[in-house]
Amino acid sequence: MFELEFMKNAFLAGFIISLLCPCIGLFIVLKRYSMIGDTLSHSSFAGVAIGLVLGFNPLITAFIFTFICALIIELLRNYFKRYAELVMSIILTFSLGIAIILISSGKSSAKVNSYLFGSILTVSKQDLILITSVGILCFLAIAFLYKKLIYVTFDEDGARVAGINVNIINYIFTLIVGATISVSIRVLGILVVSSIIVVPVAAAMQLKKGFTATLILSMIFGFLDITLGLVASYYIDSAPGGTIAIISVITLIITIIFSRNT
């Protein structure tokens, strides 16, 4: 299996994504901000459709479009403070509308399926370089802002009193989420990428550890889910996104049973 170039690329990309998605996922879950995953995954769908129609690298156009949508989401949240979920619905609807129009035009070809469901056959070296570069930048940003992110996640008002620029932190974090989703769709697929951000975190939270321990456990579960999913999808010839999603839910069920029996 590993003598094949596309499998090496897929596993290297999967390794980075398996650590990055749960890492941002814990902050998203604790902020009760889970719908942003679905919203930005639909934004990436529109970005992919734009790239396919215009003949550009879909990952790059997905990255740019998702980036713009992430900025708009955070901007609109300041105007709809009491109805933050409304902002998500607006951006989700707008992005899905763009994607449907472009896909139905017939100019985007059947390649869209590999982005919808994920594919281990089509992860190129160019994709791997982009995924690695964005992954490193996201990890560095999270490491640099780690303490401030924790503070803002648990108590925005207290963070403001402490002199932290909460709006800037939220902008940066939203951009990190958008960047993570846009580079994850190649392996995971647009339809399930948001679940991979949340489900490993849900599994880790069942073990009732502290914040840092839960973060590490989330990344471990994410790594196991994606690795086992890629191996299984190779041998049973299935879409990796769906396979990974099923395995992540099975892992969650196992941790729930384990936590209740200990």
UniProtKB/TrEMBL annotation:
Stretches assigned to coiled coil: none
Pfam families listed in its UniProt record: ABC-3 (PF00950)
Spans through the membrane: 12-30, 50-76, 83-103, 128-146, 158-177, 183-203, 215-236, 242-259
Lineage: superkingdom: Bacteria
Gene3D superfamilies given in the database record: ABC transporter involved in vitamin B12 uptake, BtuC (1.10.3470.10)
Organism expressing this protein natively: Clostridium polyendosporum
Keyword terms: Membrane, Transmembrane, Transmembrane helix, Transport
Compartmental location: Cell membrane; Membrane
Signal sequence region: none
Recorded family membership: Belongs to the ABC-3 integral membrane protein family.
InterPro entries: ABC_BtuC-like, ABC_TroCD
Primary localization class, coarse: membrane
Cellular component aspect of the GO annotation: ATP-binding cassette (ABC) transporter complex
Biological-process GO terms, alphabetical: response to zinc ion; transmembrane transport
Membrane topology: Multi-pass membrane protein
Protein name: Metal ABC transporter permease
